[in-house]
Amino acid sequence: MQYQLNQKLADLVPYDPIQGTYQIRLDANESYISLPGELRRQIGEAVAALPLNRYPDPLSQKVNEAFAAYYGLNPDCITSGNGSDELISIITSCFLESDDTIVTLEHDFSMYAFYSSLYELKVEVCPKRQDLTIDVDRLIAFCKETHAKAVVFSNPCNPTSLGLGRTEIRRLLNALDCLVILDEAYMDFWDQSMLPELSAYDNCIILKTCSKALGLAGIRLGFAVAGKTITRALRAAKSPYNTDMIAQTIGTILLQQPDYLHACTAQITERAKQLYRGITQLQSKYPNILEQVYNSRTNFVYVRTSYDAQLYQMLLDASIAIRRFRGFLRICTGSSEENAALLEALTQSLQTLSAKEESL
Ligand SMILES: *Cc1c(COP(=O)(O)O)cnc(C)c1O
């Protein structure tokens, strides 16, 4: 007899976004800034002194306090997670019951629908406008029509890089009484966060991560911010030691460096703007290939192109990894040098492609 996986597991494949090693990695929306020596030394000393034979603080109070101080929040409304990814998993598995409806949007972060399906929720996908912006009235109506128990989306959005302003978010929150999960993974790069006014909404969870602007994708640390009732439930439902001692320690040290973090965020934002300008210039030169460049509120640029497969491969051949979606490319900002190399390789690829086109 051979063990039979159930149907929902049988078709799954392990997450492995990219095979091979490439000189320049612009595919995962990470920060390109590596930690300076002084902070590395401080972290090294702190980690060496940890009592690793003991379990970590299950409520991760120190790092919650550091996170709260950095964003000007009350630590009582914070739950830490093993990346915000784990928090998405906890929320979708515990706040809804099987066959409940959760609304996601398209295009948006794929993990929402992934976990929701795994937990046997009904996933209803609300389309975005043709230009990939969110139509709030349509979304409100959609949630009501589908009797949604929850709606989840990223703002600014991965992968579109577009943002929905606060006025619109308020309108959405005021119109819905289901759970609203606002993933602000990229909000450090924009200024429309709902964190300052979250206490006005008892049905909203805001997700944050240390993986993007804060430059700590390697330690797996994310946070859920919500009111008292939801926070209590989240803390009760998570596994007790979900964030380990090393992540808590490194997260605390970093979050206690607001000047450093603000400087990094400002620099990344500036590099992303440079990248956006560079790609926009190429778009005006090759409009038949790069059909549209979206207005970026994030650390990456989203491009519509029917040549996604060719351009993706040509850049890989130049040892530059970006992210490909059907009909689109997502390019994360690197350092100035990395962006220059990307733009150079992209220019050459576009020249080659357009020469091919003309010879047809
Ligand atoms: C990267 C990303 C996350 C994942 O963050 P982790 O804390 O690394 O798990 C969550 N949401 C969105 C929209 C992201 O792009």
TrEMBL record:
Instruction: Tell me if Transferase is a UniProt keyword of this record.
Output: yes
The record's listing under InterPro entries reads: Aminotransferase_I/II_large (IPR004839), PyrdxlP-dep_Trfase (IPR015424), PyrdxlP-dep_Trfase_major (IPR015421), PyrdxlP-dep_Trfase_small (IPR015422)
E.C. no: 2.6.1.9
Cofactor(s) listed in the protein's UniProt record: pyridoxal 5'-phosphate
Superkingdom of the organism of origin: Bacteria
Q: Kindly list the GO molecular function terms attached to this UniProt entry.
A: histidinol-phosphate transaminase activity; pyridoxal phosphate binding
- Keyword Transferase assigned to the entry: answer is yes
Q: Which UniProt keywords apply?
A: Aminotransferase, Pyridoxal phosphate, Transferase
The Aminotransferase class I/classII large domain is annotated at 23-346
Q: Matching PANTHER family, A to Z? A: HISTIDINOL-PHOSPHATE AMINOTRANSFERASE (PTHR42885:SF2), HISTIDINOL-PHOSPHATE AMINOTRANSFERASE-RELATED (PTHR42885)
Query: What is the protein's name according to its record?
Result: Histidinol-phosphate/aromatic aminotransferase and cobyric acid decarboxylase
